[in-house]
Amino acid sequence: MIRIANAQFWVHDQDEALAFYTRKLGWEVRSDVTMAEWSFRWLVVGPVGQDDVGLVLMPVPRPPMFDAGVSAALADLVAKGAGGTLFLETDDCQASYDDLSARGVVFNDPPTPQPYGIDTSFRDPSGNNIRLTQILDFSPDRR
């Protein structure tokens, strides 16, 4: 069997991202290993109670991995939200919205009824999109 162990977001600053995911979202550190000889830090966080999957907070690569132009372009795309989306589920979207707002998370929109559930979104400090959804019984006919 093959399982997803980790997903990855490009981040502009690992320490800033770490503070956001642990202090504002309340996640835990799964791994924080610095390999000085490679100038590399492996940083993984994840939701408390969901131990089998993590989010790698990977710095935007710089030379020699990417040349300066490619690195800058990728950083710009991430800042604009083009780096991908993380989809989170909650049992109570409004309660999670209220809790995270109180911790300093700035949402793009309030919890909004959709055909599939109640949904809202926010971004991390690097610009990565995060959707928070309370899944309801799905019906394609629901308006």
Report on this structure:
The chain has 143 residues and is an alpha/beta fold. The protein has one domain (6-61, 83-135): Roll (2,3-Dihydroxybiphenyl 1,2-Dioxygenase, domain 1), CATH 3.10.180. The chain is 23% helix and 34% strand. The strands form two sheets. It has a four-stranded mixed β-sheet with strand order 1-4-3-2, with helices on one face. A hairpin with a 5-residue loop joins strand 7 (117-123) and strand 8 (129-135). The mean pLDDT is 94.
List keywords for this structure.
143 residues; alpha/beta; 2,3-Dihydroxybiphenyl 1,2-Dioxygenase, domain 1; 4-stranded mixed beta sheet; 3 helices; Glyoxalase/bleomycin resistance protein/dioxygenase; VOC_core; Glyas_Bleomycin-R_OHBP_Dase
Radius of gyration using CA atoms only: 17 Å
Looking at the structure, the CATH topology is 2,3-Dihydroxybiphenyl 1,2-Dioxygenase, domain 1
How many β-strands, per DSSP? Answer: 8
Shape: globular
Q: Under the CATH scheme, which architecture would be assigned?
A: Roll
Count of DSSP helices?
Answer: 3
CATH level 4 superfamily: 2,3-Dihydroxybiphenyl 1,2-Dioxygenase, domain 1
GO molecular function: dioxygenase activity
InterPro entries: Glyas_Bleomycin-R_OHBP_Dase (IPR029068), Glyas_Fos-R_dOase_dom (IPR004360), VOC_core (IPR037523)
Keywords: Dioxygenase, Oxidoreductase
Organism: Pseudofrankia inefficax (strain DSM 45817 / CECT 9037 / DDB 130130 / EuI1c)
